[in-house]
Specification:
By secondary structure, the protein is an alpha/beta fold. The protein has 2 domains: about 210 residues, Enolpyruvate transferase domain (UDP-n-acetylglucosamine1-carboxyvinyl-transferase, Chain), CATH 3.65.10; about 230 residues, UDP-n-acetylglucosamine1-carboxyvinyl-transferase, Chain. It contains 12 helices and 23 strands. It has a 4-stranded mixed sheet with strand order 2-15-17-16, covered by helices on one side. It starts with 9 loop residues before the first strand and ends in a 10-residue tail after the last helix. The protein binds shikimate-3-phosphate and phosphoenolpyruvate (PEP). Keywords: Amino-acid biosynthesis, Aromatic amino acid biosynthesis, Cytoplasm, Transferase.
Length: about 450
């Protein structure tokens, strides 16, 4: 990483030398990798994860499962098949793989969740199945992120939990070797991950689970669909509201899970800054292996960035976004795809008309308060952004250089890089925070801007 000599923690975001024209191979999906790890750990036979994301959030998940007794071996993968259960059975699956060997889940153990929502929410139900106490701790921000819904639901389903911080981390789950399960009500309006967490472990509960969401609207529905799809792909029986069931009710039947061979799709939300680069520079970026069908919320970028002035084409080469040289503002409800908000806000700040981003009040409790952080940082560069009750109003203004603070939020850092393409002198504080979900963002960014300098890279 190139660092600013005056301030080692600052990364000078490169100004685009012209219209970008690049193919960017994006590492695997965080959300798919961490679900794949949990499901494989709970299966009754070994399984494979091919092309897993290896970033802070997924390494924390793997390490936590190892601590509980699960075997996770790194191997070079040479398989070219994608058997049933694979995210994309047609892809070649070279590169790294993890072999996951389920085993009895044991405490005492200590789990470091870092600031990974998936780890802090998906693992407490797993810990309730262990045969001893499991202590959960993490970054200071993890203490502030909502967890009470998961804690209360697990107690209602039979778990014993000592939450010194009352409804948040740190806490200890006293696993009893099994969990009764059954019907439970939960308010998951602050995070869809509460629902996903209960569903993922439910095949191993004695009675399975019936989760009924009560409260304001659920965010991030595609992520719940991802949970359901992945459960079904390992043999679980799941009833959903979509399949003619009751609204806001999910049921999982108890039963053994199969060990499968899963190829992890590229992380479409992490494709966002690269696609945004095509839009912002009037260039062209191709993301190989973009799935034809997916539950990832990042797939919505095709429509959103088309509305904002690009055009998208999905071919055998992948998804190609071509910028027109014009960027339009957008009025959009992002409640289903909240994690795309920082990147959309960055593009909107460079548009030719105002934008309104709605439906994302829950982003105040993400890695940082994303609405406050985006407002402050874009305004410090000369922008005109105001926070609303559930989103942002962005009125584009000529921006100038300056320090863009990132608040240990990977998506703030990648959003800043997008601004830096068009605005000279943007310096990104702690760009290394991108390793939460992207192993080497500055190198990928540099390769996009100068493909001739790219080393042969395989993820
Ligand atoms: O289940 C998942 O993998 C995720 C669900 C969403 O969480 P929220 O529903 O808390 O927004 C999303 O923002 C997060 O990045 C990943
Ligand atoms: C909200 C996010 O992450 P987490 O899984 O920590 O909730 C995100 O990646 O944008």
């Amino acid at each position: 990483m190139t660092e600013s000599p005056a301030h080692p923690a600052l990364w000078p975001a490169p100004l685009a030398p012209g219209a970008v024209d690049a193919t960017v191979t994006v590492p695997g999906s965080k959300s798919v990798t961490n679900r794949g790890l949990v499901l494989a750990a709970l299966s009754s036979e070994p399984g494979w994860l091919r092309r897993p994301l290896r970033s802070r959030d997924t390494l924390l998940m793997a390490e936590a499962l190892r601590t509980l007794g699960v075997g996770i071996e790194e191997t070079a993968s040479s398989s070219s098949s994608g058997p049933a259960g694979s995210a994309d059975a047609g892809q070649q699956a070279g590169g790294e793989a993890w072999r996951i060997i389920p085993a009895g889940l044991h405490g005492p153990a200590t789990v470091d969740v870092g600031n990974a929502g998936t780890v802090m929410r998906f693992l407490p139900p797993v810990a309730a199945l262990a045969d001893g106490p499991v202590r959960f701790d993490g970054d200071p921000r993890s203490y502030e992120r909502p967890l009470g819904g998961v804690i209360d639901a697990l107690r209602a389903l039979g778990a014993r939990i000592d939450d010194d911080n009352r409804g948040a981390l740190p806490m200890t789950v006293f696993g009893g070797g099994a969990l009764e399960g059954g019907a439970v009500e939960i308010d998951a309006s602050s995070s869809s991950q509460f629902v996903s967490a209960l569903l993922l472990s439910a095949p191993r509960f004695n009675q399975g689970v019936e989760v009924r969401h009560v409260g304001a609207a659920l965010p991030s529905m595609p992520h719940i669909r991802m949970t359901v799809d992945m459960l079904r792909s390992v043999g679980a029986q799941v009833d959903t509201p979509e399949a003619g069931g009751e609204p806001n009710v999910w049921r999982v039947t108890p039963g053994a899970l199969l060990g499968r061979d899963l190829i992890v799709e590229p992380d479409l939300s992490n494709a966002q800054p690269f696609l945004a680069a095509a839009l912002v520079t009037g260039g062209r970026v191709t993301i190989p292996d973009w799935p034809a069908h997916t539950t990832q919320p990042g797939d919505a970028l095709r429509e959103i960035f088309t509305t904002m002035g690009g055009s998208c084409e999905l071919t055998e080469q992948g998804l190609t976004l071509t910028g027109s040289g014009r960027i339009h503002g957008i009025d959009v409800d992002l409640s289903e795809v909240g994690e795309l908000t920082p990147g959309i806000a960055a593009v909107a700040a460079l548009a030719d008309s105002p934008s309104t981003l709605r439906g994302v009040a829950h982003l105040r409790l993400h890695e940082t308060d994303r609405l406050a952080a985006l407002t402050k940082e874009l305004n410090e560069l000369g922008g005109d952004v105001t926070e609303t009750a559930d989103g942002l109003h962005i009125r584009p203004r000529p921006l100038h250089g300056g320090i863009f603070h990132t608040y240990e939020d990977h998506r703030l850092a990648t959003a800043a890089a997008v601004i830096g393409l068009a605005v000279e002198g943007v310096e990104v504080e702690n760009v290394a925070t991108t390793t939460k979900t992207l192993p080497d963002f500055p190198a990928l960014w540099a390769e996009m801007l100068d493909p001739s300098a790219a080393p042969a890279r395989r993820v």
